[in-house]
C-alpha cells in the first residue's frame, strides 16, 4: 500500500493542504478560542449579574473551588458514575454480545431490540425511567415491589446516583453490544472449531479465544463511553437536578449550575478547567489505543 | 458440542427474555402513548386498554411541537451537510495522499472531540450571546457540526480507503482535475459510505442535548429540549409525554436499525472492520 502510494505523495503532496484547511481550521478555532477564553475567565472575578465588578483574580477561583466541598463531591460523583456505568455496560454488553452471537430463532429481531435504547434521546430515556418506571407512587417498579409486599422506594430521593447509573447503563449497554457483537462475529470460525476439537468448553472458549479477541474493541468502547460519561448532563438535568443537595451533582452539572444559575463566569470557568484536565488524562489513553488502528499509514 | 434442540430452545428463551427486558421501557412508552392520562397512571399498570390517538392529536395540535420538530430536522440536516462539506475534502486528501503527518492530524481531530462540552460552556455561551447566535438554528448548526466533524472525517476516511486508488489514478490519466476526480469519481463510488456517515451524524445531532438545552430557549429549541420540558413536575402527563417521545425518537430509531452495521465502523474507530 505505502509503496504504491509513494509516488502519489510526491506528485500531489502540496495540493492536499487546501483540501485539509477548512476542516483543520474549523476544529482549530473550535478548540483554541473557547479554551483560551476558559483559561482567561478562570483567572477573573466575573459575574454576569454584576458586570461592573470585573477584575483580575489570580488563582482565587481555583482556591475557592479547591477549598470548598462542592468540587470534591462533584468530582467523586463523576468518577463514581463513570466507573460504575463502565463496569456494568462492559460486563452486560459482553454477555449479551456473546449470547446474540449464538444461533437461535429470532436472533436478528432480538439484536434490534437490544440495541434500540442507544438511539433514544437522553432526555426521553431519563424521563421514561423517572416517571413510568421509577415513580414511587405510579411507577412500574413501585407496583412490582408493592405486589411483593416490599413497600416502595423513592429512587431519586434515597439513591439518586444509583438511579442515574441504572438509566445511563441502560442507554449505553446497547452501544457495547453494537460494537462487540460484530467484533465477535469477525472471529475466525476455524479458530473456534479448532479449540472445540481440542476439548474446550464454552467457558474456556470464551476465556481463551473470544475475550482476547474482544480486548481492543472493548477498550474503544470504554474510552468512547468515558468521554460521554465525563460530561453526562441531560440525564441529571431532567431527573434530579443534581440533588438532593449535591448527591447527584457531577462536574458537568456543577459547572452548568455555576454558569447559568449563578452566572459566575469565573468560578464556572475554573471548574471547566478541571473538567478539561480530567478529560485529557482519559484522552491520552484513548489516543494510544486508537493510534494502533492506524498502523498501516506511513 | 452439537447444539441439540433443547439447548437451542433454552438459548432462544434466554435471548428473547434479555431482549424483551431491555426493550421493555421503550415498549411501555409506546403502549402508554395510546392510553388516556388516567389509564397511564393506573395501578396495577394497564396492559389491556382501549387505544386512543388523542395524545398524538394533542401533541400535534400544539403549534410549537411542529416548530420543535422542524428545528430538529433543520439543525441535524444542516449540521450534517456542513460537516460533510468540510470533511469530504479532508478525508479524500488523507485517504489518497497520506503523508507522514496524516496519522497525527487524524488523532488530533479526534482529540478535539474529547474536549468536554461543559469545559467550554461559558465562553461559547458568551460568544454566542455577543454574536446574537443564542437561540438560533445557525448557532446550533455551527456547534453541532464541529462536534460531529471528527467522527465524520474518521468514518469517511475509513470508507475512502477501501476505494482502489487505481480507479482515481485512471481518471487522472484521462485528464480529470482534482475537483472532477473527487466529485465525479470518488463520490459516486462511495455513496453507501457517505450515506452511512451522514446517518450517524444525523443521529448524533438529533439526540444532542447539552447544547440545545443550554443555548436555546424557545425559537430554536429542538425536540430534546421540548421533551425535557416534561420534566417539570406540574402534573402527570405521561400519555402525552409518551406520544411526544415516540414521535421524537421514531425516525432516529428506524435510521439506527436500518444502518446498524455501517454505524459500527464509525463508532469503533477502526477496532471493528
Provide keyphrases for this structure.
heterodimer; A: 298 residues; mainly alpha; MetI-like fold; two-stranded antiparallel sheet; 14 helices; disordered N terminus; B: 273 residues; 73% helix; globular
The gist of it:
The complex is a heterodimer of chains A (298) and B (273). Chain A has 298 residues and is mainly alpha-helical.
Structure report:
- The complex is a heterodimer of chains A (298) and B (273).
- By secondary structure, chain A is mainly α.
- Chain A is 72% helix and 1% strand.
- Chain A has one domain (65-293): MetI-like fold (Orthogonal Bundle), CATH 1.10.3720.10.
- Chain A has helices at 2-12, 17-42, 60-67, 70-100, 107-115, 122-133, 140-147, 155-158, 160-185, 189-197, 202-230, 234-238, 251-260, 265-291, and strands at 44-45, 55-56.
- In chain A, strands 1-2 form a two-stranded antiparallel sheet.
- In chain A, helix 2 crosses helix 14 (265-291) and helix 9 (160-185) crosses helix 11.
- Chain B has a single domain (60-268), classed as MetI-like (MetI-like fold, Orthogonal Bundle).
- Chain B has 14 helices and no strands.
- Chain B has helices at residues 5-32, 37-40, 54-61, 63-96, 102-112, 121-130, 137-160, 165-173, 178-189, 191-207, 210-215, 223-228, 238-258, 260-268.
- Chain B starts with a helix and ends in a 5-residue tail after the last helix.
- Chains A and B meet through helix 1, helix 2, helix 4, helix 5 and helix 6 of A and helix 1, helix 4, helix 5, helix 6 and helix 7 of B.
